[in-house]
Each structure stands twice: as C-alpha cells, then as structure tokens.
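*Target chain*
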Amino acid sequence: MSSPLYERIGDYARRNRISFAMPGHKGGAGLKKDLLSLDVTELDGTEDLHHGGEYVTEARRLLSRLYGSGDSYILTGGSTAAVQSMICGAVAPGGLLLASADCHQSVVNACAVMGIRIRFIPTLFDKDFCIPRGVSSVAEYITDDTDAVMLVSPNYYGICSDIKTAARECHARHIPLLVDEAHGAHFAASALFPETAVKYADAVCHSAHKTLNALTGAAYLHINGALIDTQRTRAALSVFQSSSPSYVIASSADTAREDIEDARAWEENYARCAVLRKNLSELGADMPDNDDMTRVVFGLPRIGMTGFELNAALSERGIDTEMADLYSVVTIITPSNTQDEVDALRFAVADIAVGTEKKPPLPHIDAPPICGKTLDPSAAFFAEREQVKLSDASGRVSCVNVAPYPPGIPIITIGETVTDEKLDYIKHILGYGGAVTGVDNGEITVTGTKK
C-alpha cells in the first residue's frame, strides 16, 4: 500500500530545509501547536464560519479593528476566493472590470466564469529587472462603461501602486476600487511598512498564509463604503468557498491576526532584512528598489547567472526561495525565520558569487506589450477548443491564461489573440529553465476557429 502524496511531502518536511518561501509560519515554527485538534465541523459548540455566532463575529470584529475596515471576513479558500467574491460584488455579468496588467490570473478566471469583460491598465516597468512597478494613476483609463477598478499592491516583488491616488480618481467617478493586497497582510503590523490599501479602497484581500503565521488557504477580505454590493459579496463568499470550511485554517487566520498586533517582532525582522540587503549588495548582488523591506529580491546577473540558476544553486545548499525569474530570486522573510537562517542565506550567496565561473552578463529582454483591447474571457473559456503547438498558435485566441508561475501574471490572457512577440517571450522563459502554466508539452489551448 502507498500514499504517494503524503509520503512525498513528508519526505520534504523531514529534510529540515531553510524556507524563504510561503507560508509565513516557516514549517510550523510560528504556528500554535494544537491546531490539528481543531479540525471539527459546524456544531452547536463551534458555530458556522459563513453564518457566525458570538465567537466568529468577535474574531471578525478584531480583524476589522486591526486593519481599519468597515467589515472583515475570515476565509479558508485563499485570496482567490476573496478576489472572486469582491469582483462579484462590484461587477454584474456583462459589465467591465478595469484591471492592472500585473493582476493575478485569478482575476481573469473570475471574469471568465462570471461573464465579465476585462481591460488592462499598463503598469510602470523596471526594464533592468523586467518586472512590473505598479500603477501610479488610473484616471485616463476609466471609461463611461467601467464598473470597477482592480489593482495589485504590493505585487510579488514587494512593489506598491499609488492606492491613495487611484482611490481618489475612482471615487470621483463613483467607481469602486478593489485591491489584491494578498502579499501585504503584514503591513498592518507597523508604521515601518507601507499603508494598507484598506485605508483607501472599497474592497481588499489578504493572503494571511503568505507572510503571517497562518496555514495555507487562510485569507482575509475587507469591505468599506457602499460602492460595492455587500450583500452580493457575502453571498459570493458562500458560493466560492466550501460549505464545510476548515476550522484549522480559520483558527490559524485568527491567531495570525493576534500575532501581528505586537509590532516588535515585525520591526525586528524589518531591521534584520535591512542588514541582509546591505550584505547582499556588498557581495555584488543586484536588487530592484521596492516598498516592502522584508521582500528581499536579488540576483547575480553581472556574473551571467540567471535567477533560475541562482535558485537551483541555493536549493542545492538546502535553501528554498519563493520564486525565480530570469534576473532574480524572491525571498519572503518573516519573524518565523531565525537569524541563523538569514545568515545561512548570506553565506550561501557569498559562496555562489565567489565559486561560480563568470559568464557574459545576461541579455536585456523586454516584456511583450499588454493587450490594450477589451476582452471577453468568458466567450473563449466556454468555446470549443483544441491544443496546438506554440509554433502554430499565432493568430489564434487563447482559451487559457499563459503565465510564469509563480508569480501567476498572465503573459497571454483567456480571450486574447496570441502574437508572435508573446510566443517569442514564452519560448525565451522556457529556454532559460522557467516554468509557464498554460503550456503543456509545448502546446497551448486555443479556440477551434482561426481568427
């Protein structure tokens, strides 16, 4: 008899690797130790997370107080469920969502299944690292048929958009601003971090498990004001989540909120990350500017090492990073990481930088332009489909999101016509060892009719 998944994950856990990846509790170091005993169902003594009594209501009140929202919810289906629910509460079928080009594929997927049109806002771009730098203004992109605006802040690289300005511009047109702040749940811990988007936006989601001491799937949704349909949003939470939510995950979301009410651990972690950045710079690492000190992004492109190669070299030394791209790796450092672990990262980078044979600097690759047209992802999602080779996909309409994962930002969106430029970019990522979802054995799924 065999339990292959259990055995595989168990084997990984027993290696005692150093994690600078999700979840924020780092192998259970930051978790309450009795969580497994809390795996119960909805009983008279446990309440119902979707229709909470005294204790669920109090947990939500404390969550709302911490982040400063009008109302807050604990979720067990991750930020994906929150994104789906906030979009459902702001845009009806046939409506138009204006979204930043660096939005997560869950935004596009939500539009596809709910019959919502989508158009993208170009993001600022860091050409040296080939990463998005967020959005500074949305006013010029809002049209009379725009029903809501969706931004990501911070993005996977710890870079924030100008949420205060975007909110002012949206509210001047009586349009709700939705923010995917999945990677910024810890911003409420201290004034050292950027302001949380909850202060300005109409709906904001957090993935508690990304940076806090919460189990994977733990998330928060915050609602403000009257521009989003609260009743429909609450109904959507029941639609997009299991009717049997995990109390283990929900309880970890509750205790994670309690943890960050004490700022000291996060402020100490902030200072520790500032020192690490200085150390990495002295070792010759290149780092893009970002807004979250604890999201340490770095690479060694000057010695010709890709982020994929750097990630592999760190992995060989027992260190896991959150993600890699062509130029850099992303690390998530939380209070549940120890100083010894941070030191081990620094020593490993020093060893790699000195011991790696220097190659020509990495080539500069421009990301392909975003689609500027209004898309109907629903039509493509439900269309007849076929798989074709990447070399035969140009001019066809994609039925899937094609995205490097992580971070899950689509290069090609459901409903978008595939171009040679985007195919070349995908082939380039694959050629350097990157992983791209939506591409299966060199093939992509497209609608059955040539455009």
Q: What stands out?
A: The chain has three domains: 4-22+263-355, 35-259, 377-447. The mean pLDDT is 94. Residues 131 and 379 are 30 Å apart (CA to CA).
